[in-house]
Design goal:
The chain is of the alpha+beta class. It is built from 7 helices and 11 strands. The strands form 2 sheets. Strands 2, 3, 4, 5, 6 and 9 form a 6-stranded antiparallel beta sheet that branches. Strands 1-11-10-7-8 form a 5-stranded antiparallel beta sheet.
C-alpha cells in the first residue's frame, strides 16, 4: 500500500515538489520524489523533468539487466546521472531556467530490498519496530557543520543557512548521488519526504503519526507542517 500527498504550503506561489508512484502492474516497483529550486518556473520544471527522466530510464533498462544487487544499484545511479544531464541541458535553453536544480530521491523495491538513490536534502526514512531511522544524509551546508562538530544537531534545526545545499541535481554537468541498498522486513514502512515537512515536523512526531494510522498519516503530516508555518512545499510518500 502507498499513501501520498503534496501541498503548496502556506507561503509559496507554486508547488516545486513532484513525485511518482509506480502502478501495481508495472514491472518495476518504483517511488521517486523531487524538490525543485530556481526562479520563475525553474524549480517546478527541474523536479518534474528529473523525476520523469529517472523513471523512464529505469523502466526502459530494468528488463535488460541481471537483477543482482550491484546491477540494480548501478541502474539507479545511471538513471540519476541521466536525469542530471537532462535537467542541466534544459537549464541552458533560456535565461529564466539558468541555475535551476532539484533534489532527487529514488526508491526501487525488488526482492525484499530497497535500492536508494539520493541527492539533496529531501529524505528517506524507514520505520521498523516503531523506531524511525533516516536512510539518507542531507547534502547541505548545515549537515557539514554538524559532521565537523561546529554545531549540534539541535542548533542545525534553526540555523539560518539550513536550506543551503552542497549538492543538487541539474546544476552541474556531472553529479555523484549517494547509492545504497537496504533490506526490507515484513512490517517495515518507508517514508519519503521533502524538507517542507522535515523543517517543520520532528522525526519523533512523524514516526508517531505514521505508526498510529499510516493510511491517514500523509494528510496529517501535511496538515501539521502547515499548522506550524507551512513555509515551503510539502510532499510525503508512505510505502507499506
Amino acid at each position: 500500500m502507498v499513501f501520498a500527498r503534496t501541498d503548496i504550503g502556506r507561503t509559496r506561489e507554486i508547488n516545486q515538489d513532484y513525485y511518482y508512484i509506480s502502478s501495481p502492474e508495472d514491472e518495476v516497483e518504483l517511488y521517486i520524489l523531487a524538490d525543485g529550486m530556481g526562479g520563475y518556473k525553474g524549480g517546478e520544471i527541474a523536479s518534474k523533468l528529473a523525476t520523469e527522466s529517472a523513471k523512464e530510464y529505469i523502466q526502459k533498462e530494468f528488463s535488460k539487466i541481471n537483477k543482482n544487487k550491484d546491477e540494480i544499484l548501478k541502474l539507479v545511479q545511471n538513471a540519476m546521472e541521466y536525469a542530471n544531464n537532462v535537467v542541466f541541458e534544459k537549464s541552458k535553453e533560456s535565461e529564466e531556467l539558468e541555475g535551476m536544480g532539484t533534489t532527487l530521491e529514488v526508491c526501487l523495491i525488488y526482492n525484499n530490498k530497497v535500492y536508494i538513490g539520493h541527492i539533496g536534502d529531501s529524505r528517506i526514512y524507514r520505520i521498523r519496530n516503531n523506531v524511525i531511522r533516516k536512510l539518507t544524509k542531507d547534502h547541505s551546508y548545515v549537515q557539514q557543520l554538524v559532521e565537523d562538530g561546529k554545531i549540534t544537531r539541535e542548533e542545525a534545526n534553526t540555523h539560518p543557512k539550513k536550506n543551503m545545499l552542497t549538492k543538487a541535481l541539474g546544476c552541474t554537468p556531472y553529479v555523484e548521488p549517494d547509492i545504497r541498498a537496504r533490506n526490507m522486513e515484513k512490517n517495515d514502512i518507508l517514508l519519503i519526504c521533502s524538507d517542507g515537512l522535515t523543517n517543520m515536523v520532528s522525526e519523533e512526531e512523524m514516526a508517531k503519526l505514521v505508526i498510529q494510522e499510516p493510511q491517514t498519516a500523509a494528510n496529517k503530516l501535511v496538515e501539521e507542517a502547515n499548522v506550524l508555518g507551512g513555509y515551503d512545499n510539502i510532499t510525503v510518500v508512505i510505502i507499506m
